[in-house]
Amino acid sequence: MAEAGRKLSLSAWVWVLIAGLAVFELVAHPLIRAAIPTDDSWAAATAFVRARYQAADRIVAAPSWADPIVRSHLGDLLSLRMAAPADPAGVDRVWELGIRGATTRDEPPNLEEDFGGVRVRMWLVSTDRVLYDFVENVDQAHVELVVADGPQECPWMKASPARGGLEHGPMTPAERFVCDPRRPWLWVGATVLQDLELQPRRCIWQHPAGTDPVRVTFSDALLGERLVIHGGIDYQSERRRIHGPVTLRVWIDDRLAGELIHRDGDGWSGIDIDTSELGLDRAEVRFETTAEDPRARLFCWSASSVRGAVDG
């Protein structure tokens, strides 16, 4: 009899649990629905941003997984530079569209509005003024593969693009410098790389060929007070941390101006080169990549000539 009573008691607890879950769903369902912004809320929030948007503004989503929703409403405003920034230079204001209390910045915003669960916040920021963006002007460069017999030109050409993706690195653009058709990774051009933190970075792909430099020369680049350079390796390769470093050397008018040595684990790292003392408005700027072991060195870099700081 005692055993039957224990079984009956267990059955009763199971039914209590089921009934409790049913009650929880009845109570929680409207709360969950209330926490999800409606399409009208998103439309009102994005219309508010669109009416105030300026060319030097950046738009971000919080949390980051809401980014596709923001892009679906405001994607036409997002240039590649602002959607996949290599550095913060050239940004005057940051607009954030956030839900569920998420945010990307700790400081109080300069403006804040709420649209039925979609919170719009805006910050004025102080950044350098970009005088020359090397990524935007990559098609004006001269590219060579330096071999034992001398420099071998890499022609700018239209070629079959590649989508990239898992284990294949960034997308290969349809127009690029092709250094060796037998080595499909040996090209130079603009793309978007996913860095070690899975952040998109707009940059110039310049996979090293080995100890023979891949050379990219801008014959008449504008200079400012500083040359800001960043570089990284696609996360699918860098996260393994089993390959050797990549060296990016920067030359200004045939003088070595700086060197970025990227090792796995560095992420999207960079250097600043002071150009204020050169007394030059324009110069020839050359970028060379090398690696003792070029395997899986999916290297990409960005550079900007900048001047001053814009007061926010």
Written description of the protein model:
- The chain is of the alpha+beta class.
- The chain has two domains: 89 residues, no CATH class; 178 residues, Jelly Rolls.
- Helix content is 21%, strand content 38%.
- A hairpin with an 8-residue loop joins strand 9 and strand 10.
What would you say about this model in short?
With 312 residues, this protein is of the alpha+beta class. It is 21% helix and 38% strand.
- Beta-strand fraction estimate: 35-45%
Multimeric state: single chain
CATH architecture of the largest domain: Sandwich
Number of strands: 18
Given the structure, what is the number of helices? Answer: 5
CATH class of the largest domain: Mainly Beta
Estimated helix fraction: 10-25%
How many domains would you count in the coordinates?
2
- The best one-word shape is globular
Instruction: Write the H/E string, N to C.
Output: HHEHHEEEEEEEEEEEEHEEEEE
Largest sheet: 8 strands, antiparallel
Radius of gyration: 26 Å
Distance between the termini: 80 Å
Question: What does the secondary structure layout of this molecule look like, with pairings?
Answer:
Layout (H helix, E strand, L loop, with lengths): L1 H34 L3 H14 L4 E6 L4 H8 L5 H4 L9 E6 L12 E5 L2 E7 L4 E5 L8 E6 L2 E4 L2 E3 L16 E4 L8 E8 L5 E7 L7 E9 L3 E8 L1 H4 L7 E7 L2 E8 L6 E6 L7 E9 L8 E9 L5
Parallel strand pairs: 1-2
Antiparallel strand pairs: 2-4, 3-4, 5-18, 6-7, 6-12, 8-9, 9-10, 10-11, 11-18, 12-17, 13-16, 13-18, 14-15, 14-17
